[in-house]
């Protein structure tokens, strides 16, 4: 029997509420569909850890995670601590340490969910975002001079490498081909960002030439956000830089009906390092502790984990269980207009996945 | 009788179709409501000029415009020329040359227009974006090394100055106060962009402290695009950096129903240099030459011109004429589901503004 060793980082706020549901769902799917065993080890890193120890995760955090098959993480963030600290102390650090250069984020209007767009048949919101995840705008380069004086200047430098762009664009086309998708759209802003984005465009055009079977187009980021709300059906796979992908995927989550549904996979496709699976949403301190957070985004992320681990059957079964659960009005949390609790939704998914065995 | 000297740059694509309508509307409003005379001088700058002369505008372009009271511009852009050339050759150059540090962009769902959001009462989409327009991500700093080799690296450096942030944030609060608006929301991404955006946040907090009568909040750009589609009524005045403002205003235009309606004002509030008024939309080569482009975005921009020129009555009358025209299904262009021509819409606005005299 295959054992999958999963490092679990529950994180902050609603994290410790939704993560146990995702772990339970993972176990249910693995047991009933993959003949797998899930061995989960929990790491109490995040804001409490920072307040006690002065770091969000220990310095040897990446080392301690390196041997796992995958990482399942909750959101990290706390009103008492500057976001730069929590974010650079864990999630951005791990993306870079493990060279998880792909951030894969589906945005799909699930059956039964009402999104904010009028006149949109559900099947017309079905996009996959392939976000660059290790460089670009979030490389971390920059600084401040004349601090706190009137003459103060702050610079933030985006660093794009040809190889970094090439690998993410290639991944997008490969993903499109494997998933039977027809089109890859590149998010750009080469008219105004005149140094880095022309390189992005050039590499996109070069790579696209290798995939004659897949349509492609380039779209300015400003036009692209407008297009997402006015013609969502014109988008299929979207490849974007770190910042643009970040912005597009929150908008994608919103038009797919709720941040509480949106999953993500931070992948190192070379498999030299573990990949990390995590809901897109934040720690939501406003609703934490009340047992009402939607666990679906983390559960869907867990389904992506199974799929990336080569457990297609278990992953697909879990995803079907998610669809079944969300389609049932009695099993929706408040963000979807329902009144089910976090635990009720999680339990329903586990039951649905077991019932499919 | 006051004479307003307006430099007119029709630009490319649909520009030469919509700009004459905006000039006519300006004249109609000025004559019947301000007792004003409009003296318009046209400058044939743009892509044809570039193809003939090798520059989008002559080197002394800013000098030649400097003496005008205002500039009314159409879109510039042509599929035959790289966007970096057209954009840096005219619009970005003028914003910087004239220190037009405010880009003011209302996004309002006008009566009769159907936007893409379901269940949204029209009055709940009524935002004003105050976009920084001279520095930040669009400062133009950066470069490429190892060009065209596998080791190539491109950098794009955002440069934010304390004074540049302060003046735009202060403008946003002053605008909110003058317009009777209640809240200013700041678009940020200080968690990931850890050098420049914390400075932005600090200055925002400092300036906000001077405006106890106006509510304020900070919102991460990713959360903000989601909020625009899920809770548009929670937004009133939004202050944003150059890039973030660019993205937010196209999304704003989309949720207000059409890019064909969205105006903008590039302002130098010190009035040392002329300000520039221009629709947000592009040159739309796909529909150029057919007489079907919506002239409202340029006409609305012209109304902002009158208002900034101190001609409140003429500006308000023109804006009322715009509302009246758009509310009439027989006077809507194809982007709004109608079949009226550019000229029909322009003529209707002129008639409406004259009728109000
Ligand atoms: C927490 C933050 C740095 C992160 C990001 O911007 O990448 C988040 O918004 C996301 O989308 O995963
Ligand atoms: C043409 C382009 C540089 C410009 C911008 O991005 O500022 C446009 O998109 C706008 O919003 O005015």
UniProtKB/TrEMBL annotation, chains A, B:
Which co-factor is required? Answer: Mg(2+); Mn(2+)
> Which Pfam family, an example, fits this chain?
Iso_dh
Catalytic activity of the protein: (R)-malate + NAD(+) = pyruvate + CO2 + NADH
According to the entry, every stretch annotated as the Isopropylmalate dehydrogenase-like domain falls at 5-349
From the UniProt annotation, give the residues forming the signal peptide: none
Give the EC number(s) listed in the UniProt record: 1.1.1.83
The record's Gene3D superfamilies line, in alphabetical order, gives: Isopropylmalate Dehydrogenase
Q: Which UniProt keywords apply?
A: Manganese, Metal-binding, NAD, Oxidoreductase
Q: Which InterPro entries match?
A: ICDH/IPMDH, IsoCit/isopropylmalate_DH_CS, IsoPropMal-DH-like_dom, TTC_DH
> PROSITE patterns, alphabetically?
IDH_IMDH
Q: Which SUPFAM superfamilies match?
A: Isocitrate/Isopropylmalate dehydrogenase-like
**What PANTHER family would the database entry show?**
D-MALATE DEHYDROGENASE [DECARBOXYLATING]
Under what name is this protein listed? D-malate dehydrogenase (decarboxylating)
Organism equals Capillimicrobium parvum
Q: What is the lineage of its organism?
A: Bacteria, Bacillati, Actinomycetota, Thermoleophilia, Solirubrobacterales
What gene is this protein translated from? ttuC'
